[in-house]
Design brief:
The structure is a homotetramer. By secondary structure, chain A is mainly α. Chain A has 12 helices and no strands. Chain B binds a DNA duplex through α1 and α3.
DNA sequence: CATGAATGAGGGTTCATTCAT
DNA sequence: CATGAATGAACCCTCATTCAT
């Protein structure tokens, strides 16, 4: 009997634990979505906690059960944003081996994401370098591809950091642009082409890499970005 | 005698007025220098007034005799920075007519200024688009030259905003870079060349425009930037 | 069991809610008491927040959790004072139907309250018309009784506003007097009689109305005024 | 020759002194007018110096050449107001010997002044007791007449302070009323009559005293009040 | 774990007063 | 004596963080 009891108790504990963990995860996600929106619309240094908890509809205390400080929240959002982008971009880069192709596709995807999800664009723009530096895309994938491209002669011989600036600069500027202006549908392609040219790729080749087919439909189903968009919409509707 | 008296009185009033105006101008300049330093080191949204007044060594009240709000201060600094840059760059652009040459020189000069004056670079980086959009260089000169280059066939046919992003993006990224990394002396030239290539200029031509002789000695004598540097140095020494 | 759980949860929530509301109410009362004292001793336009919070022994933030501005605080105090006076006076006026009797009793009660509770008198005097106009006594009861008295011929035919001035003027002046001078115990009666005479009531009749028995013992047990007095005493003792 | 010289020098000094004193007096008057307006419209505890100097059109420093503190300014205005009122009222009271007549005329004159000069009324209302207590009318004339009236049997036997409240209370209330409401032309007469009744004067007698002929035309020519009115008008017109 | 009242350091702004010109 | 820039104490208000329930 003690066995059964302990079994059932264990099971119940397991169950409780699992349910609890799930609920915790959900709450955390909810707070991150709200925080993304708040950072996006108010900037990084603005009042944050009040906004986040009212956006998320939870109490102060709850918030501090998940993030101990403001900065921890920002880092968590930045990390989550980076992860999410990588999760979306990685599968599409996987089949590509030519660095030029990978960079062109990466640029186009990021621009596309920024277009589709204004809060994401706003977060990147307002968060500045810190929001970008957190993620693997800019800190691992991009340097690696740039180095490979120089190595293979695909790109001109450029100092690594210069090449980095030549890619990231235009992309961040474009995030700002898609947020504030109406731009043609092929903005990403044109930007990718120009960036490749700046890296030393001939115009025709650059065009070819930049305009290859790319299916961006349903890229972001159920991502942090979708959920943030949804939350933003529902808030605006109230 | 009454005539002489009134004359002398008038003179005295004029004198007082002129002296007063000069002192006012000096104090304003002093506050702007300090504010540039503060914005540069703490960011745009940080505590400002306290820092500025202690940097400038004046009282709280004095600050508010010159700027009524935080934003007013930021705008004033941004405007002054823009003016100062233009004052430095304009004479050197004047003799140049080819848009590619003008843009290359403009890029190199800005990078050079950023290298020489870290506070300026930091202000631009932290202030973001708003710090740049205030000035004539980015809002008038650059668009005009880009349009002229496209018109004359010197550049590819690009949407104006895209061309703008292709220039400003790398320049801002480079400002960040020169602030945080050690870069070779020809960073500006290399960047200018790459940017021209991204605009469609052939590599060899781009190199030629980007490497033409440019004397940057004594560019900034007695400018806001020099004075801010000096102030920063004296503060650090204390 | 789930039923019982949810029940108990509900109960607990209710309990928490109720306890919270009670605490909130207490804090609010405490702040109002302190504010009454501060307004009374420093005047209406004086520095308030600092004084109030140190008098109440709470933090700055707490204050702003209850009142967002100075004015909001003043209005709240004025309203509370009015309510409190009405709560005390109303039961004693209820059995009286003759306007002269009602006004005489009202005047005597107010004077008596002012005598017993210097902070109240001071608040009324320093707050001026605004402190009085907030309440039902001066804005509803008094005009109504005056109109009724004129209607019934008990009073002379006077413009409503004039009659109002003839009552309120002396009462406010008397509040000032009882605060600064020692006055005989029958000051209120004498004042009430004189006011009735100014309204046209014959001297003997006015005397009769003004001197009828009135038990003012224990009028104000546990009122805002008592608590304010107590707080003032404890502060003075420190 | 030395004699002549010294004579002429003396004369010149005298002249300069006299001219200086006159100019000083004028400036002082100008500041007092402005201050009266400011106290009237902003209250006693409001920002004062800035308002006064901009109303008077002089510099900060000049202000402090005439009044060393805020309070000194207020006292000066209150004193000047009292003097001015007395200067106007005294000649008209001079021929009257019966205390009832003197009080009735005094009340009517004050009400009339308040009607004609809203800034005066506002100053009295906002300044409170302190604004009134400064002057001879309320502190000397009134108590003396009240005592004489009681002595001679014209009034009931009342404690001095009570009688004082019975006169000053209604008058102050009426100042407030004439400032905020439209009242009939005979408001002052009616008030005076009622006040006399409250002091124990029979209705018919009170009416007689309160309605005796009184010429109030041109009472205040070139007084502080006229000048303040004029200044207020010219400011409003700008 | 959720809640929300309480905290208090921190930042912005005003304004009476001084003082060199 | 007029001027107005400079001063700094005093205030108001916010908001990240803590903690008892």
């Amino acid at each position: 009997m003690s066995t059964r009891q302990s079994k059932s108790a264990k099971k119940s504990v397991n169950h409780r634990t699992r349910v609890g963990a799930e609920r915790r995860e959900k709450m955390r996600a909810r707070l991150l979505e709200s925080a993304l929106l708040v950072f996006a619309s108010q900037g990084v240094d603005a009042t944050v906690v009040d906004e986040v908890i009212s956006t998320a509809g939870v109490s102060r205390g709850t918030f501090y059960n998940y993030f101990r400080t403001n900065e921890e929240l920002f880092s968590a959002v930045a990390a989550e944003v980076s992860n999410e982008i990588l999760r979306i971009v990685d599968p599409l880069l996987l089949p590509l081996t030519d660095p030029a192709a990978r960079i062109a596709v990466g640029i186009r995807l990021v621009i596309e994401l920024a277009r589709k999800h204004p809060p994401l664009a706003a977060f990147v723009v307002r968060g500045g370098p810190a929001a970008v530096a957190a993620g693997g895309l800019a800190t691992e994938y991009l340097p690696r591809d740039l180095a490979a491209g120089v190595e293979s002669g695909r790109f001109s011989t450029l100092p690594p950091r210069l090449a980095y600036d030549l890619v990231l600069g235009p992309v961040l500027a474009a995030c700002h642009t898609v947020l504030t202006e109406r731009v043609p549908a092929d903005y990403g392609e044109a930007l990718a082409q120009a960036v490749l040219q700046s890296l030393g790729v001939a115009k025709a080749t650059a065009r070819r890499f930049a305009t290859q087919m790319l299916d961006v439909t349903e890229l972001t189903a159920d991502s942090l970005f979708e959920r943030a968009d949804a939350r933003a919409t529902s808030l605006a509707g109230e």
